[in-house]
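Structure ticket #2291
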Amino acid sequence: MIAGTKILVTGGTGYIGSHTVVELINSGYQPVIVDNLSNSSLQVLKQIEGITGVNPEFFNFDLSDKQRIDNLRKIHPDIEGIIHFAAFKAVGESVEQPLKYYRNNIYPLVNLLDSFSEQKVNFVFSSSCTVYGEPDQLPVTESSPVKPAESPYGNTKQIAEDILRDTAKATHNLRVTALRYFNPVGAHASALIGELPIGVPQNLVPFITQSAIGKRGAITVFGNDYNTPDGSCIRDYIHVVDLAKAHIAALKNMENTAQGKTYDVYNVGTGNGNTVLEIIKAFESTTGVKLNYTIGARRSGDIEKIYGDVNKAEKELGWKAELGLPEMMSSAWAWENYIKQHPF
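Resolution: structure written out below.
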C-alpha cells in the first residue's frame, strides 16, 4: 500500500470512480474504496493495479449501513478526504422508481456526514449539470438558477447539494466542493478501465461503441427537430480522465486554502456543446467505423441543449479539460475492443 493522504472513495470501482482512483494514486494519495458492486465489477481493482502498480484497499458494503461506515472510520481514523460517487444515475429509471433513488442517493450521504462529523474532512461531491434543468441562457454558470428537477435523479443531486451546504455551514469540520459534471465519456488511455454499463446502456457513447462492435442494433437519435444546428440535442461531453483530474484539483484546492469557503460549486466540462449527430460523426471519423442509426421521436425528460461556463474551475482550481472528441471516441472504442477480448 502506498503512503500518502488517505481519501475515502465511495463508488470507487465505478466508471468515474475508478478513473479518479487512478489519478489519486498518480498524485500521491492513498485511496480507500467502498463500493457495493451494484453497478461495477471487482475485476476493476485488478485493472487499477495494472495501470498504477497499486492494489487499493477495498471494502464491499452498502453505505446505507451506517455501522459499517463507523467501523471503517475506526480502521482508518486518518482519512482526511472523501470523494462521494456512490449513487444510482439512470434518469428514466428514477422516474419509474423514485423511492429507490431517494433511498439510495440520500440516506448514504447523510450516514457519511454523520459518521465523519467529529473529524476534519475535505469532501468532494459528484453532482451534475442536471441541477440547472432546461436553462434560460447558455452557457450555464455556477450562479445560473437551479430549477425544479426534470427527474427524481436530478432532484437527488439538488437535495444532496442542499444537505452538504447546510452541514458545512453548521460545522467547522467539513469543507465541501460540489462538482457539477456535464457528460463524461471515453476511457483510460491504457484501455484497462472504462464505462461498463450493466444491461442496455443509458448513455450515448457506450451505446455507440456497443452498436459498432455488434452488441446492439441501430442507434436511435431521439429527435431531430430541436432548435440546434442539425436538430439533435446538444450536450457538453468531457473526457473521463479530465473529469477525474478535476477531483484531484478540488481536493488540493481545499488542502491549500485553509481559510477558504466551507462550500463551493464548480462546473466541470469543456465549455463547448456538441450535438448527438456530431458525436456520431466524430466516432466515425476517428475510428473509421460506419454507424447504423435512425431518427426517433423525442425522449421524455431530455432538455434541448446545455453546456457550461467552466472559467471558475480554471481560475480557482487551476483545472481545464485537455482532451478533445478524437481522444474521447478513440479511447471509448479501444475500451470496447478490450472488453470484447477480456470480458468482465
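Closing remark: The chain has a mean pLDDT of 95.
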